Amino acid sequence: MGKPKRSRSLGDNEAKAINRMLRVSPQKLNLVASMIRGKKVDAALADLTFSRKRIANDVRKTLESAIANAENNHQLDVDSLVVAEAFVGKSLVMKRWKPRARGRVGRIQKPFSNLTIVVREVEETA
């Protein structure tokens, strides 16, 4: 006898992927995440492939993972997927110190972020 199975938090036509501990500030990551929100997955992948932002490659990997989850785990059609949600959360912040002039110290913060991407299958309207 175990715990009862937890109900699925997403709909039947949705799949998600989470990438934790990305070494970038949430503000910078949100710029890239907002670039793909609401787009079809093939257009979003193309945008991320040719983006000049450093973190775009990690966002692309997370999106590909969400697409693979939709295809393999939930049997969704890849051609009709759109990026329903792409949201960013704060993770830990490493604090570092740098010596400055006259015996003072400068605080350096190295933030980490979490990224969640939800893809949804939509019906084609003809």
Automatic annotation (TrEMBL):
UniProt-listed HAMAP family: Ribosomal_uL22_B
PROSITE patterns: RIBOSOMAL_L22 (PS00464)
GO MF terms held by the record: rRNA binding; structural constituent of ribosome
GO annotation (BP), single: translation
Name of the featured protein: Large ribosomal subunit protein uL22
Source organism (scientific name): Rhodobium orientis
Subunit architecture: Part of the 50S ribosomal subunit.
Pfam family, one: Ribosomal_L22
Function: The globular domain of the protein is located near the polypeptide exit tunnel on the outside of the subunit, while an extended beta-hairpin is found that lines the wall of the exit tunnel in the center of the 70S ribosome. This protein binds specifically to 23S rRNA; its binding is stimulated by other ribosomal proteins, e.g., L4, L17, and L20. It is important during the early stages of 50S assembly. It makes multiple contacts with different domains of the 23S rRNA in the assembled 50S subunit and ribosome.
UniProt-listed InterPro entries: Ribosomal_uL22, Ribosomal_uL22_bac/chlpt-type, Ribosomal_uL22_bac/org-type, Ribosomal_uL22_CS, Ribosomal_uL22_sf
Superkingdom of the source species: Bacteria
UniProt family annotation: Belongs to the universal ribosomal protein uL22 family.
Cellular component GO terms, alphabetical: cytosolic large ribosomal subunit
Record keywords, A-Z: Ribonucleoprotein, Ribosomal protein, RNA-binding, rRNA-binding
